[in-house]
Protein backbone atom coordinates (compact mmCIF):
# COMPACT_ATOMS: atom_id res chain seq x y z
CA UNK A 1 0.00 0.00 0.00
CA UNK A 2 1.36 3.42 -0.95
CA UNK A 3 2.06 5.85 1.82
CA UNK A 4 0.23 9.15 1.94
CA UNK A 5 2.41 11.82 0.25
CA UNK A 6 2.49 13.97 3.40
CA UNK A 7 3.68 11.00 5.42
CA UNK A 8 6.46 10.35 2.89
CA UNK A 9 7.40 14.03 3.17
CA UNK A 10 7.51 14.04 6.98
CA UNK A 11 9.38 10.73 7.03
CA UNK A 12 12.22 12.29 5.05
CA UNK A 13 13.08 13.79 8.44
CA UNK A 14 11.48 11.57 11.10
CA UNK A 15 9.72 8.21 11.22
CA UNK A 16 6.09 7.89 12.20
CA UNK A 17 3.83 5.11 13.34
CA UNK A 18 0.51 4.64 11.59
CA UNK A 19 -1.26 6.03 14.66
CA UNK A 20 0.99 9.10 14.81
CA UNK A 21 0.42 9.91 11.16
CA UNK A 22 -3.34 9.37 11.45
CA UNK A 23 -3.37 11.85 14.35
CA UNK A 24 -1.22 14.36 12.45
CA UNK A 25 -3.48 14.16 9.41
CA UNK A 26 -6.54 15.09 11.53
CA UNK A 27 -4.93 18.53 11.97
CA UNK A 28 -4.82 19.23 8.22
CA UNK A 29 -7.52 20.28 5.82
CA UNK A 30 -7.65 19.90 2.04
CA UNK A 31 -8.43 22.59 -0.49
CA UNK A 32 -8.62 22.57 -4.28
CA UNK A 33 -7.94 25.78 -6.14
CA UNK A 34 -8.08 26.57 -9.82
CA UNK A 35 -5.40 28.26 -11.85
CA UNK A 36 -5.32 32.02 -11.07
CA UNK A 37 -7.03 31.65 -7.68
CA UNK A 38 -5.34 33.09 -4.61
CA UNK A 39 -4.69 31.29 -1.36
CA UNK A 40 -3.06 34.35 0.26
CA UNK A 41 -3.75 37.97 -0.67
CA UNK A 42 -1.69 40.98 0.27
CA UNK A 43 -3.37 42.97 3.04
CA UNK A 44 -5.28 40.04 4.53
CA UNK A 45 -4.56 38.09 7.70
CA UNK A 46 -3.09 34.64 7.14
CA UNK A 47 -3.90 31.67 9.35
CA UNK A 48 -2.85 28.82 7.08
CA UNK A 49 0.36 27.28 5.86
CA UNK A 50 -0.05 25.20 2.71
CA UNK A 51 1.65 22.04 1.50
CA UNK A 52 1.40 21.31 -2.22
CA UNK A 53 0.02 17.88 -3.08
CA UNK A 54 -0.44 18.76 -6.75
CA UNK A 55 0.11 21.91 -8.75
CA UNK A 56 2.33 24.96 -8.81
CA UNK A 57 2.04 28.33 -7.07
CA UNK A 58 3.93 31.59 -6.80
CA UNK A 59 4.45 34.07 -3.98
CA UNK A 60 4.86 37.62 -5.23
CA UNK A 61 4.30 41.31 -4.62
CA UNK A 62 4.06 44.43 -6.74
CA UNK A 63 6.33 47.40 -6.05
CA UNK A 64 5.18 51.02 -6.10
CA UNK A 65 5.74 51.23 -9.85
CA UNK A 66 3.56 48.19 -10.51
CA UNK A 67 6.41 45.78 -11.26
CA UNK A 68 5.89 42.23 -10.04
CA UNK A 69 8.60 40.58 -7.96
CA UNK A 70 8.39 36.82 -7.48
CA UNK A 71 9.80 35.58 -4.19
CA UNK A 72 9.04 31.89 -4.41
CA UNK A 73 7.54 29.15 -6.50
CA UNK A 74 6.05 26.06 -4.87
CA UNK A 75 5.52 22.71 -6.55
CA UNK A 76 4.65 19.29 -5.17
CA UNK A 77 6.07 18.64 -1.67
CA UNK A 78 6.79 22.34 -1.01
CA UNK A 79 5.34 24.57 1.70
CA UNK A 80 4.10 28.10 1.03
CA UNK A 81 2.38 31.03 2.73
CA UNK A 82 3.29 34.54 3.83
CA UNK A 83 5.40 33.42 6.78
CA UNK A 84 5.57 36.78 8.54
CA UNK A 85 1.79 37.13 8.41
CA UNK A 86 1.27 33.49 9.41
CA UNK A 87 3.63 33.56 12.39
CA UNK A 88 3.18 37.13 13.64
CA UNK A 89 -0.56 37.59 13.03
CA UNK A 90 -0.06 40.62 10.83
CA UNK A 91 -1.45 41.40 7.39
CA UNK A 92 0.19 39.71 4.41
CA UNK A 93 2.80 41.63 2.44
CA UNK A 94 2.73 39.14 -0.41
CA UNK A 95 0.13 37.25 -2.41
CA UNK A 96 0.20 33.56 -3.29
CA UNK A 97 -1.67 32.40 -6.35
CA UNK A 98 -2.07 29.19 -8.29
CA UNK A 99 -0.23 28.88 -11.60
CA UNK A 100 -1.98 25.56 -12.22
CA UNK A 101 -5.00 23.83 -10.74
CA UNK A 102 -3.86 22.83 -7.25
CA UNK A 103 -4.61 20.34 -4.52
CA UNK A 104 -3.27 21.60 -1.22
CA UNK A 105 -3.17 20.47 2.36
CA UNK A 106 -3.24 23.23 4.94
CA UNK A 107 -2.61 23.56 8.63
CA UNK A 108 -3.68 26.46 10.79
CA UNK A 109 -1.27 28.24 13.10
CA UNK A 110 -3.15 26.85 16.13
CA UNK A 111 -3.01 23.26 14.85
CA UNK A 112 0.67 23.57 14.02
CA UNK A 113 1.42 24.91 17.51
CA UNK A 114 -0.74 22.16 19.05
CA UNK A 115 1.03 19.40 17.12
CA UNK A 116 4.45 20.85 17.97
CA UNK A 117 3.56 20.96 21.68
CA UNK A 118 2.14 17.43 21.69
CA UNK A 119 4.63 15.66 19.44
CA UNK A 120 8.36 16.21 19.65
CA UNK A 121 8.69 14.58 16.21
CA UNK A 122 6.60 17.30 14.60
CA UNK A 123 8.36 20.07 16.50
CA UNK A 124 11.67 18.64 15.18
CA UNK A 125 10.21 18.28 11.68
CA UNK A 126 9.18 21.93 11.49
CA UNK A 127 12.45 23.09 13.05
CA UNK A 128 14.37 21.18 10.36
CA UNK A 129 12.13 22.49 7.55
CA UNK A 130 12.62 26.05 8.86
CA UNK A 131 16.42 25.62 8.87
CA UNK A 132 16.38 24.24 5.34
CA UNK A 133 14.17 27.11 4.16
CA UNK A 134 16.46 29.66 5.78
CA UNK A 135 19.51 28.11 4.10
CA UNK A 136 17.75 28.16 0.70
CA UNK A 137 16.75 31.80 1.21
CA UNK A 138 20.27 32.75 2.24
CA UNK A 139 21.70 31.07 -0.85
CA UNK A 140 19.14 32.83 -3.04
CA UNK A 141 20.04 36.26 -1.63
CA UNK A 142 23.75 35.53 -2.01
CA UNK A 143 23.18 34.44 -5.60
CA UNK A 144 21.23 37.62 -6.37
CA UNK A 145 24.08 39.70 -4.93
CA UNK A 146 27.11 37.90 -6.40
CA UNK A 147 26.15 35.77 -9.39
CA UNK A 148 25.61 36.93 -12.95
CA UNK A 149 22.19 36.53 -14.50
CA UNK A 150 23.54 33.58 -16.50
CA UNK A 151 24.86 31.89 -13.34
CA UNK A 152 21.53 32.41 -11.52
CA UNK A 153 19.64 30.97 -14.47
CA UNK A 154 21.95 27.95 -14.72
CA UNK A 155 21.71 27.26 -10.98
CA UNK A 156 17.91 27.44 -11.02
CA UNK A 157 17.69 25.21 -14.07
CA UNK A 158 20.09 22.65 -12.54
CA UNK A 159 18.28 22.62 -9.21
CA UNK A 160 14.69 22.68 -10.51
CA UNK A 161 14.61 21.57 -14.17
CA UNK A 162 10.85 20.87 -14.06
CA UNK A 163 10.18 24.46 -13.08
CA UNK A 164 11.30 25.64 -16.52
CA UNK A 165 8.73 23.34 -18.13
CA UNK A 166 5.86 24.60 -15.95
CA UNK A 167 6.48 28.32 -15.49
CA UNK A 168 6.32 31.03 -18.18
CA UNK A 169 9.69 32.63 -18.98
CA UNK A 170 8.54 36.08 -17.83
CA UNK A 171 7.87 34.67 -14.33
CA UNK A 172 11.24 32.93 -14.20
CA UNK A 173 12.84 36.22 -15.27
CA UNK A 174 11.05 38.04 -12.44
CA UNK A 175 12.21 35.42 -9.94
CA UNK A 176 15.80 35.74 -11.18
CA UNK A 177 15.65 39.53 -11.16
CA UNK A 178 16.29 39.94 -14.88
CA UNK A 179 14.35 41.24 -17.85
CA UNK A 180 12.42 38.73 -19.96
CA UNK A 181 14.66 39.58 -22.94
CA UNK A 182 17.78 38.81 -20.87
CA UNK A 183 16.39 35.40 -19.94
CA UNK A 184 15.64 34.65 -23.60
CA UNK A 185 19.30 35.30 -24.46
CA UNK A 186 20.46 33.01 -21.65
CA UNK A 187 18.38 29.96 -22.53
TrEMBL record:
This is cAMP-binding protein. Keywords: Coiled coil. InterPro entries: cNMP-bd_dom (IPR000595), cNMP-bd_dom_sf (IPR018490), RmlC-like_jellyroll (IPR014710). The keyword Signal does not apply. Pfam families: cNMP_binding. Residues 32-115 form the Cyclic nucleotide-binding domain. The keyword Iron-sulfur does not apply. Residues 139-166 form a coiled coil. It comes from the Bacteria.
Amino acid sequence: MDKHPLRRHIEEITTLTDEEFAYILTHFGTVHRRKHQYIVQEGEYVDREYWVVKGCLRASFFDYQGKEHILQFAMEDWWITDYEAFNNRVKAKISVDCLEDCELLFITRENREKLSAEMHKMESFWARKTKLSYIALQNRVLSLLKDTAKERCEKLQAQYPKLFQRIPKKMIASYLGVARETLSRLY
